[in-house]
Amino acid sequence: MAKEWPGFVYRGCFFTNCGYNIETVKSNPMDQWDIRPDDVVVVTYMKSGTFWMLNLLSSLYTDLNLLLSSTKKVVRLDQFYDDPGCVPGSYGKHAKAMRESLVEMPSPRLLYCHMPFQFFPRAWQDGEKKCKIIYIARNPKDVCVSYYHFMQGFPWAGMDLNWDEWVRAFVDGKVWYGSWLDHVLGWRRFGLEDNVLHVTFEDMKRDLKSVLVKVAEFLDRPKSDEELDDVVKKCSFASMSQGVEFYRRVSSLGDENSFLNSVQHLRKGKVGDWKNHFLVSQNEFFDREITVKAEKHGLKLVHNMLRHGISPRSAIIPTLELLCHAMAKEWPGFFYRGCFFTNCGYNIETVKSNPMDQWDIRPDDVVVVTYMKSVGPCLRGWQSVVWIVVGSRVRMATLGLEDNVLHVTFEDMKKDSKSVLVKVAEFLDRPKSDEELDDVVKKCSFASMSQGVEFYRRVSSLGDENSFLNNQNNVQHLRKGKVGDWKNHFLVSQNEFFDREITVKAEKHGLKLVYNM
Fold it and tell me: What is the distance in angstroms between the CA of the first residue and the CA of the last residue of the chain?
């Protein structure tokens, strides 16, 4: 069973054991909020642009009362559900003060909340009382990454999951405020007729002024172009992230005396940064469990700004990325005749002398040619028939049977070893019976070889017991041999770069690459 964040589920939402008391949660404490028609409430799932919007609104409308008088901190309505006694410092004090003095806060008030809709006051849900709600949605992959980094500053919360465990907890809704999908879909039921305006973090990043125009119309408080331009300039995400004064000044987490001051308030705010954190396998899991379901409900998720033509400079991004890779740390070595040789292990003068000319090629020599780690020495058990595998270089692929070169693939060997052996036997003009083929397939399957590396140790120059490379910690002779295991190692950003530079070019040359069985 996967490691989980200790907590409990109530009315479809997850609450952690530390920070919440189940009896308090069940009492619907948010009913204490004295909802007013001129209250402006920013509602978000965690890490979706909350304080960015609060800063924008308080800058655009200076008459909005943002701070609780007793603590000089912004009011987060879901603190009604917090257990103040569980959290020491200014955070706990503010939660207690908010319950006691919110009613004394003068109108109009600017508040925020992270709770799912079902925890809003019954009077609001029944339509008896209304306020102005601005709901911000952000693509869940960037939310997941930002949320994970944010939680590193909460040691008291008992969240000691690693990144992979966090991704699964997030997908399962076993994090604060529950499932992202349930949260967004729940609030999506409400529209302008309910005094709820929906905007997205991605739209704010793309065209902040247009979003502010919508907000001003929604609040029925229009602003001039000059006023909007001024606020956009002062409150862009870049400006806020360079200085976190606003967050520190108004957030109950930002007080200098709070042990929560170590929280990373504003990170990158970049659309698509998830690609530098998600492994391909994690991304596929996430897509199955969230993206596909979200799209079935009509949600259009923007996981990458470039894909939607938002960046006017998108055409030069690949070039810039290549430049970064060119400047990255490299393995010291040299190129000769289109091939890379490392400084350690090769001498350029020896390489240039074409020493392989010393090989006395014979017509009955059988040579296995591969790019590194494409097959390994799978010769065990049937010495008269060997695997014939040509590496992945396009130039090599131009040679065929007329040149005495047989092409097979590792993936075909994994899928149907016997069929490949039949081809090899025909190529060598040395046919074998079904019984002989079946026996070799059984003895020499990759699984059999990887369980015991006797053959490798016996025939490989790396496997000699006196070789310093014999240490299993230094050389892992046979690993998994699993088709598709790359997904557990490649980040999505790395995979996209790899596809641009290798996969696309290979397919243009007619190579059909099998990345997943």
Answer: 26
Please say whether the beta carbons of 154 and 260 come within 8 A: yes
Q: What are the pLDDT digits (tens) for 384-427?
A: 223 343 333 334 446 888 888 999 988 888 889 899 999 999 99
Q: Is residue 341 part of a domain?
A: no
67 strand-pairing partners? 74
Q: Is residue 146, in this structure, part of any structural domain at all?
A: yes
- Other C-beta atoms closer than 10 Å to the C-beta of 178 total 24
Last residue of a domain, one of 224, 256, 288: 256
pLDDT tens-place string over residues 117-165? 999 999 999 999 999 999 999 999 999 999 999 888 777 777 889 999 9
Element holding 112 (H helix, E strand): strand 110-113
Tokens 């948010």: give the residue: 30
Q: Is 16 helix (H, G, I), strand (E, B) or coil?
A: strand
Residues 389, 427 contacting (CB under 8 angstroms): no
Angle at 171 between CA 170 and CA 172, to 5 degrees: 90
Alpha carbon distance 163, 278 (integer Å): 9
Domain presence at residue 349: no
- Report residue 310 as tokens: 């938002």
**Strand ranges (E), 251-306:** none
- Indicate which residue of 94, 114, 198, 303 is catalytic: 114
CA distances from 397 to 184, 327, 401 (A): 51, 31, 11
Q: Is 149 a catalytic residue?
A: no
Domain end: 210, 240, 256, which one?
256
Tell me if 400 is assigned to some domain.
yes
373 and 252 assigned to the same domain: no
Any bridge partners for residue 133, and if so which? Answer: 41, 196
Omega of the bond prior to 121 within 30 degrees of 0, cis? no
Rg (CA), the chain: 31
**191 and 42 share a domain?**
yes
Asked whether 56 and 212 are in contact (CB, 8 A), the reply is yes
At 205, the amino acid letter reads: K
Domain count along the chain: 2
Contacts of 491 (CB under 8 A, 6+ apart): 275, 276, 277, 278, 279, 280
| 378 and 241 part of one domain | no
